Every structure is written in structure tokens, then in C-alpha cells.
Protein: PSP1 C-terminal domain-containing protein
Organism: Thalassoglobus neptunius
Amino acid sequence: MTVALVRFGAVPEVARAGIPDSLAVSRGDVVVLRTHRGEEIGTALEFVRPPVEPNQESPDPEFEVVRLATDIDRSTQVESQRQLEQEFAAWHQRISDWGLDLQLIEMERTLDNEILILYVLNERGPECTKLALQAAAAGLGIIEVQPVGADGPVALPAPSGGGGGCGSCGAH
């Protein structure tokens, strides 16, 4: 298995993705990768070279490239973005109506249209959790709220070793 850096997401993230040996991928190829959200379209940027230091192991890939993107994959993504542009104002209004201190900046769906990703200008915290819960209570499908800061998407906090909790505040 080869490992490449792949850029994906409407607010771009870069991650290591494993590429099966049976798949010929080059720099710049548009690929479908399986992420923690589901299948998403990304672009292969660079292959990860083995470490120079002896006895040092390469980090494991975070995701897996499933295939080169097809014309159907690309048209599905374009159509999904068109629909989301029409829904943006409605989502902005919902956030306001629910009294959440979040600013919606972008939206996208996974390639299978199962998960809606809402990018919000905020740190990861209770407001993001409230948005996901309000959307679920309103029957609006599976929603992932992805906070975005000045440096891009905000990562989940490192596990604290504590017990339980929702994972949004990092306190438990």
C-alpha cells in the first residue's frame, strides 16, 4: 500500500490516505476517499516518502483511497453543491432562529448524500453540539458540524483519559 497526502473538503483538510497497490494514482488525480464521514472527493497531492531515520516508522494513513473519481462522482458533487447553495440561507436562518452563536460559512455533503457537513466559524464547543442536536430534533438528517478557525478546520481535542462526555468540550 502506498500512502499519499490528499486534500479534501469544502474547507480543505489534508490527510494521509492509503492507496491500494491495485490503484494507479498520480499527483493531481481526483480520487474518492473513505473518511470518518464517509466517501468524499479529494485531490492527491504528494506521495509520503519513507522516513530517513533508521528504525523510524511512517505514520499510518488516516483514510483510504477507494477509487479514482468517475464522471458520475464529479457530477454528483457538482449537483450536491448546487442544491446546498440554494439551502444556505435556510440553514443560516435556522441557526439564528435556534439562538446559536455560530456563523455558517460553508456546507457540503458526503458523496452518498448521507451526511451534511456544516462548516461554522467557531471553536469546537457546546454551540456546535447544540446545532447538531437541534438539526437532529428537527428531522434534518445526519449533520456533522465542523468548526473552522483562522488556521482551518478545528480538530477534535486529544483524549483526556477521563470518562465519557460528548467529546465537544475536551473536559470529559
